Fold:
Amino acid sequence: MILQIIVDMVGLGATYALLTIGIALLFGILGLMNFAYGEIIMIGAFAMYLFKDYPWFVGVLAAVVFAVVVSVLTERLAFRPLRNADPVTLMIASFAVSLALQSVMRMTVLPRTQGVPPQPFLTESITVFGIRVTVLQIVTLVLCGVLLGGLALLMKKTPLGVQLRASAENFQVAKSLGVKGSFVIMSAFAIAGVMAAASGIILVARQGAVSAEMGLTPLLIGIVGAVVGGMSNLKGAALGGLLLGMGTGLLEATLPTDLIAFRDAFLYSAVMVVLVIRPQGLLSGTKVRTS
Amino acid sequence: MTNSTRIRRLFETPILLVALMGLVALIAVFGDPTITRVTVQALIAVVFVAGLSLFSGNSGVMSFGHVGFMAIGAYTTAYLTIPVNLKSSMFSDLPEPLGFLATIHAPFPIAILVGGLAAAALALVTAPIMARLGGLQAGIATLALLVIVFTVLNSWTDVTRGSSSMIGLPKSTTVWWAAGIAALVIVIAWAYKKSRSGLQLQASREDYLAATASGIAVGRHRVFSWVLSSIPVGFAGALYAGFFTTFNSQTFFLSLTFSFIVMIVLGGYLSLSGAVIGALGVSVLQEILRRFQDGAFTGGNSLPAGIADLILAAVLLFVLVKAPLGLMGTGELRLFRKRSIGSAS
Structure:
């Protein structure tokens, strides 16, 4: 029973970590709290709906392509003209981008919720040592592990990763040392797009439906995870997401049923407390100015 | 600067803005029902945005949570003005300590007042948090506040009816109530802006470290303006409830927040005149866009739903890029052009 809860918690934690990384990556480099990230996830999920009659890897591939293209486009059209704006202006701009993407989808291809039957093999479950694990949970864990590991390798070992980390540390200095600012920012948006696509794919498989509004919940989760973990630090953010997911899983398993509906209220109260006590995040060492 | 110009400077902006409210009210009185509806909505928006600007304009901290205060004002008005016999059937499962909600009743003006005070109570509880945060952290904290209020309203169905609508409110918001409260809020916001606390808060907005180094207790002034600004926003909620007579938990969430943000950013969030003009202008724009979406300008062919939101989002992005301080910047509405800075002393 306890093992079962732990397995569920880790599965949720990995999913949340993925959501958080996409938010934290852009925040670290641009100071952008990207509210349009939820819509990028929705675009990825929509690709899965569009190609639902084809073999699954076509949908997955399309999800990645769609999400990356739209993510890079938002940078080019909306965020590049605002590159030197302060974080709050950027946040408001991303609000506008989010609403614009949602409206476009609602106007054209997604006026209402559409069902996407999950791949039959995902719903099968296997029992190991008395614990029921669905294939979807295993796929989620593997996908999150591969992506997080891949991102860690990219950041540590490749020239692009070095440039990304340098830009996150100090964008102006990095630029004067020869880092191509626009290229680095675009790649950050592209990487965030890949993360969003993966989250979208997992989300579709879990919910079995796509809608224009589906981005809000994962977006809020990503932001909370990033705030709790430490916004400008990828490792902290990933851990924050993981902790948040495991905490949510624990709350769901232990909270009395009539309080589960208020789960988010508890969660966001905790966020406000964290912001006041440790504005740099629970797991981040550096101090940040709060005013 | 002579004494008389100083006095003129102090009073001309609020007089102009209050006169503007009177003018808008006259348009509503003599216009057809549609125009009346749009104007009253615009006046309610003015009440909200002027209240928000009391906090954001002076402190420079953007709040995404004020719609939560508006919700408090609206729900308070619902409990106070829905006829008692209807209420007892609407809220049959009220938990014990809140049983009085089913029996209390008050006239609309009292409901407005209590709505504002109830919002202030929530502001007081969250004030210690706002005193310590600024910039992006404050933005996220206020958003968290909005989500908390929404979650509670949406899930506590025995008390709030959740996503099913509040019904049976008497239609109490008249043009004069809306215009009167808008004028009152404008005067309060202006008085605060020119007060000692308001000026010190503006100093902290321009340079936080310099302000604290000069001995300004930034946190205290933030708390004061946070609580003070929640009261008009609660009024706006009460007026909203008394005007539309029905709403639910979904009403006071992100899309309403977004349209208020468009108003305050478009007008210029550092200027009270900007906030008022933004609220009026965007309300009219939203109505035009709604007609456009319904096909009023395309020969009756309605356009796909969402195009109004899309255009609004595009307008906001354009303003953020081209004029981040909005139409008014830091200026205020004046009769005479401002003299050069050198002569001001």
Summary: The mean pLDDT of chain A is 85. Chain A has 13 helices and four strands. Residues 2-277 of chain A form a domain with the ABC transporter involved in vitamin B12 uptake, BtuC fold (CATH 1.10.3470).
